[in-house]
Amino acid sequence: MSIVPNLVQFNKKFVEEKRYEDYLTDKYPDKKIAILTCMDTRLSELLPKALGFKNGDAKFIKNAGAILTQPFGSAMRSILVAVYELGAREVLVIGHLGCGMTEIDVKGMVNKFAEHGIDPLAIETLENAGIRMEKFLRGFDRAEDGVMHSVKMIRRHPLFPKAIPVHGFVMNPETGEIEVIVEDYREEGKTP
């Protein structure tokens, strides 16, 4: 059975009781921060609370592993929009210990595609078109490596402003403790 009827029922009551009023804010991040982080469910509430953020403080961009796989993908586009259109003045990349992307089995995942009805010919066609599953689905050996990969890709992006600092962290998804991987201070208007 679908979860949708329960979601709609809850939502209707949420709106009728005006519970949304506790979350009112605007689209501009109050702390002028954009955060690229992992989609891991353990971080959904823990990460903002462990950093002292409330609703409206930061722009959160989430994907598998907080890793940028291509410089012109949707996550990088979101970071650029946060900086140029929404006033973010710093970017944080926050990975976490025990990330599923450190354990990803690319061949096993490709096999799961077939188990779920994806025609192997579709995968072969993608491979022949230059989309390599080993690269597309690749993870990293350590969370720190994934964070540094994304930090470097952001810093080196041809459309990213050189004056905006990009910091990297790894979080413990059980305690919320963060470890600074790279701290990047730049003064706006000056290049490093």
Automatic annotation (TrEMBL):
Its EC number is 4.2.1.1. It is an enzyme of class 4 (lyase). InterPro entries: Carbonic_anhydrase, Carbonic_anhydrase_sf. Coiled coil: none annotated. Transmembrane segments: none annotated. Its cofactor is Zn(2+). Binds 1 zinc ion per subunit. One of its GO terms (molecular function) is carbonate dehydratase activity. Keywords: Metal-binding, Zinc. Zn(2+) binds at C38, D40, H96, C99. It catalyses: hydrogencarbonate + H(+) = CO2 + H2O. Belongs to the beta-class carbonic anhydrase family. PANTHER family: CARBON DISULFIDE HYDROLASE, CARBONIC ANHYDRASE. This is carbonic anhydrase. It comes from Paenibacillus hemerocallicola.
